[in-house]
Q: What sequence folds into this?
């Protein structure tokens, strides 16, 4: 009985709140990468006068750079968010949901496809997916796994794709302009080094040697570390190493740059080749059908609890190397024969990312459904038609029967 009373009170609270003002959306960003994953959706909401968007994080200092342009009054702590009223909670990570007391609905957007940390099958993990009203999936494989295991219901699951990749596949980035912004020589091939976070990653095993080897092959080198690798406060992320300082120490103007952009899509567009160990960014690069090299590190697969299927699939579309000498040879081969493994890259991209290019529209539509609002474009058309027509005599003037 008490549970039913609580549900009734929440419904009343949400209804009254909607009468009094705009829909209120709380966006939870654990790190800068999560902000980039959600940004295509939040950008659509930010442009809608019927919606107010607020941002929160476990540690706001970690995402300060990503939220620098957000008005300060729209950035709040988990503690501040706990007692406020929300029409929707939106996250890109199911681990860090704060205990919100007055939240009508919740949605989770997956932030990757790499199959790390058991997220392809979280049956034994303490993640309460059943508490989300919608779980937005990037590909059909993971959605089918969750449905088959009963982790989510058919009513919760929504197959939308990866909104962050839409601009990349649409060719929205000017590679030349990106290289100029980074101060790179456009005459050289550009290699992106983007390892995953983990003390067992290629960064921790041989990061500087990898960068030096790439530069030694006559390439521009762009280093894009996972945001968690830069988190010195948590050793399980960075190994306790100041990777920002280490990368700055080996930077060379015009040749080696370390970039901390929340969204690496522009860096992908500007790169001729990528080197990673195992990360979603490697799968994303396959959307461009450009050469990929996987630097194998003993222990990473077990340490990061990676789905063996994802390991096999990524490596099927890449050259796999185990040391810097093999890396040098693979770089030369990739630049001489970029068409090698093109069929494998295209096949992998098609399976990992559902209908790329239309993901943002599907995700935004799912969010508006949860907010009980018409999508912004449809609402504006409705408003325009309503305000441009003369008043209807039937609706504008009481009929004799109505006033009797």
A:
């Amino acid at each position: 009985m008490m549970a039913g009373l609580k549900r009734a009170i929440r419904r009343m609270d949400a209804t009254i709140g909607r009468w009094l003002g705009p829909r209120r959306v709380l966006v939870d960003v654990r790190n800068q990468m999560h902000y980039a994953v959600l940004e295509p959706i939040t950008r659509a909401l930010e442009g809608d006068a019927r919606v107010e968007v607020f941002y929160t994080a476990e540690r706001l200092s970690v995402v300060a750079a990503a939220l620098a342009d957000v008005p300060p009054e729209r950035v709040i702590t988990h503690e501040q968010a706990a007692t406020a009223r929300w029409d929707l909670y939106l996250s890109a990570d199911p681990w860090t949901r704060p205990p919100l007391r007055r939240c009508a609905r919740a949605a989770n957007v997956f932030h990757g496809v790499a199959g790390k940390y058991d997220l392809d099958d979280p049956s034994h993990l303490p993640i309460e997916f059943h508490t989300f009203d919608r779980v937005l999936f990037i590909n059909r494989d993971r959605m089918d796994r969750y449905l088959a295991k009963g982790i989510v219901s058919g009513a919760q699951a929504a197959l939308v794709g990866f909104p962050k990749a839409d601009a990349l596949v649409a060719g929205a980035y000017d590679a030349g302009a990106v290289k100029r912004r980074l101060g790179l020589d456009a005459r050289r091939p550009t290699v992106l080094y983007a390892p995953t976070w983990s003390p067992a990653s290629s960064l921790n095993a041989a990061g500087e040697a990898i960068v030096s080897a790439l530069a030694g092959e006559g390439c521009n080198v762009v280093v894009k570390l996972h945001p968690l690798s830069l988190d010195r406060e948590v050793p399980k992320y960075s190994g306790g190493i100041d990777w920002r300082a280490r990368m700055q120490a080996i930077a060379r103007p015009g040749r080696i740059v370390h970039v901390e952009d929340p969204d690496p899509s522009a860096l992908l567009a500007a790169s001729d080749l990528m080197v990673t160990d195992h990360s979603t960014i490697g799968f994303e690069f396959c959307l461009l059908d450009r050469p990929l090299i996987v630097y194998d590190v003993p222990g990473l697969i077990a340490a990061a609890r990676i789905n063996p299927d994802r390991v096999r699939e990524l490596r099927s579309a890449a050259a796999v190397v185990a040391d810097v000498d093999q890396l040098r040879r693979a770089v030369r081969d990739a630049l001489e024969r970029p068409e090698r493994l093109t069929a494998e890259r295209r096949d992998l991209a098609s399976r990992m990312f559902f209908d790329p290019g239309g993901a943002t529209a599907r995700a935004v539509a799912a969010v508006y459904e949860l907010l009980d609002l018409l999508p912004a474009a449809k609402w504006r058309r409705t408003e325009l038609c309503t305000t441009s027509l003369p008043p209807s005599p039937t609706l504008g003037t009481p009929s004799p029967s109505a006033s009797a």
About this structure: The longest strand covers residues 51-57. The two ends are 46 Å apart (CA to CA). Residues 2-162+356-383 form a domain with the Rossmann fold fold (CATH 3.40.50.2000).
